Amino acid sequence: MPKLRVQNLFGLEVAVAEGQTLLKALQAQGTDWMHACGGKGRCTSCRIVVQQGLPNFSPLSAAELRYREKGRLKDNERLTCQCTLTGGEVTGNVPEQTKLPHMKYSS
């Protein structure tokens, strides 16, 4: 089963089921993650900065492509509400702008 590791959440590891978005996998494990539009791909608040494993992601969704074209989503960022993993492991970080105030983050 593919795995997500979030470095700045103290190395949190999350198993991601086939076809499951990263946001759903994080929520299933009980991890709070910013998603202002409710996980519908209408904002970029749920993004993750990918450190390793970018080839293990599903192709960009229509929403992600739209934000890339507008310069609101960098090449190493994905929307957790839109993407799934195709295998292997990926490592990423919560961006500074979308950290939740009640959560503790590591460096």
Automatic annotation (TrEMBL):
CDD domains tied to this protein: fer2
The protein's name: Ferredoxin, 2Fe-2S
PROSITE patterns, sorted: 2FE2S_FER_2
Lineage of producing organism: Bacteria, Pseudomonadati, Bacteroidota, Cytophagia, Cytophagales
Entry GO MF terms: iron-sulfur cluster binding
2Fe-2S ferredoxin-type domain segment(s): 2-98
UniProt cross-references to SUPFAM superfamilies, sorted A to Z: 2Fe-2S ferredoxin-like
Signal sequence segment: none
Domain of life: Bacteria
